[in-house]
Structure formats: C-alpha cells, structure tokens
Amino acid sequence: MVQQHVLVILGPTAVGKTSLSLELAEELRAEIISADSMQVYRGMDIGTAKASPAERQRVVHHLLDVVDPDQPFNVADYVRLAEEVLDRLRGKGKVPLLTGGTGLYIDALLKGFLFPDTSADETIRAELQAQGDREPASLHQKLAEVDPVSAKRLHPNDLRRIIRALEVYYRTGEPISSLQKKREETQSPYKPLYIGLYRDRQELYERVNQRVDQMVQEGLIEEVEGLLRAYPEQPTALQALGYKEIVLYLQGKLTLAEAVDLLKRDTRRYAKRQLSWFKRNDQIHWLNRSELPEEEIKRRIYSLWASEY
Known about the structure:
By secondary structure, this protein is α/β, with parallel strands linked by helices. The chain has 2 domains: about 5-110 and about 190-309, P-loop containing nucleotide triphosphate hydrolases (Rossmann fold, 3-Layer(aba) Sandwich), CATH 3.40.50; about 120-185, Histone, subunit A (Orthogonal Bundle), CATH 1.10.20.140. The protein is built from 14 helices and 6 strands. It has a 6-stranded parallel beta sheet with strand order 3-2-4-1-5-6, with helices on both faces. α2 links the parallel β2 and β3. α5 crosses α6. The radius of gyration is 21 Å and the shape is globular. The two termini are about 15 Å apart. The model has no long low-confidence stretch (mean pLDDT about 90).
C-alpha cells in the first residue's frame, strides 16, 4: 500500500496556525482539512475562530459547518468524514493540509486510535448508564467477564470508559482491547509530516487575551445570543469554551468583564493542555514562532516536506 502524504500543522490556540496554513496551502496547492472539534458546528463561527468566507475563498476548506449545534458528533464521526475527504484528495492528486488544535481528532485519524463501528448506540448506552447509576460495581464486573484486559486497565469508578468498552463489545461482539490491538497492528494508510507551532509562554498568553477581546469586538456576544434563541436547551456544543462563559453573562450570573476574564483564563489553560497532549508525539517537528520569522518557518517546512515526502 502506498501511504498518502499528509502535511499536519498543529499547536495551541492563538499560536498562528490559520495564517501560516493558508500561505502553505496556496503555495503547495493544497486543500485544508480542519482538525477542530468545535468548528464542525454551524453557526459557531466567532467563538471557534473559524476561517472567514474570504479565507475559504483563498483555499478550499473541509470539515467546517458539518452539523448543527444540537446534533451529536464525536471523534468517530470526524474520522469517518476526514477519511472520505482524504480519499477524494488522493484521487485528485491534491496535497491534504490537516490543521487544528484537537489532538484527539488528529491522533485518531492518523494513528488509528479508533476501531471499526464506533458510532454511538444511544439505546445500549442508556441501558448501561441506568445500570451504572444503580449498581456501578456491576458494570466493571461485567467488563471483567467479556474483556479482562480493559477491566484491568480501567478503574472501577471510571464509569464513562467502562460503559464505552461494554457498548463496543455489545455492538461488535469483540472486546475493545482486541479491536484496538488489531488497529495498532495495521499499517496506517497515511504518512504524516507533523509540524508543531509554539510561542514563548507569555507571548502566547498575550495573544490569547487579544484574541478574546477581538472575538467580543467582532460580535461574539451577539453570536451566542442568536444560538441561545435557536437552541434554548443549550446542547453540549454551547457548553464549549468560548460559549459557556458568555452564556453565564447573558444569564446575569457574571458581568461582561467577569465573563471575558474567565474566558481568557480558560483559554490559556486550554492552550496549556493542548501543548501537553502534543508533546507526547515524538514525530512532531517543533518550530518557535516567537524566534523564527515567517519566511524561515516556511522554508524549514518546505525543506522537510521535500526531503521526506
């Protein structure tokens, strides 16, 4: 099997992935695939820093505006859709440029951390959840019977993962541990070049603060107001970073200044978690945007792409 080459630009929020990705995509004649768990939702534009209409005219973007905020969407859905896009780009001879900050989505797609048939079964999940609410220890015992490897790995109180493992077993007839092992032993159809962007911490945090201020100026509050009118029950998507803080302000639980400060703090913490996730991947070529000028960063990326791909 000839592996498909994929250029991956990753890093924490506000590091400057979008501008660089657009320039790279134009010069490589690539198409951009978003790897952002919140940009898949329609109507959630400002708070997710989604590519603007003008930016989408410059370069074709994929996996933006895929579902409405009240529709379920998980990592398995993302992988399925992204694989379809990658297959189309392979057929067209186009370079895929995968960019975003959701490390789970990137790893699941390129490293195969998922397994076949992982879409949620709400009926099975609800039944398991009800049993877990009544007798939590019984679920771990059941898992030990059908999948002792997973049961040994999971704490008896980790109900969410125990339920997920049992759900997969009931859907597929195979233990989740066996499916994961099979996937790990299967060669990935993709050959990614990982480029990680970072900045000096204080500079990154200042950029986070500036981005939040810019989002408010661009109409974040009005965007959240419109979403609340459309989805008054506040689906999971509206509990995301950038939205839940503004919802608290609109509900009168925080002043605007307090909500903005909270959003800045939460976003800084999120950026730190993103970096921690990515640092586990020893295949990433890290480039410091605080020290290297844009042209040098692009030169290094082109050099890596040409030499390895």
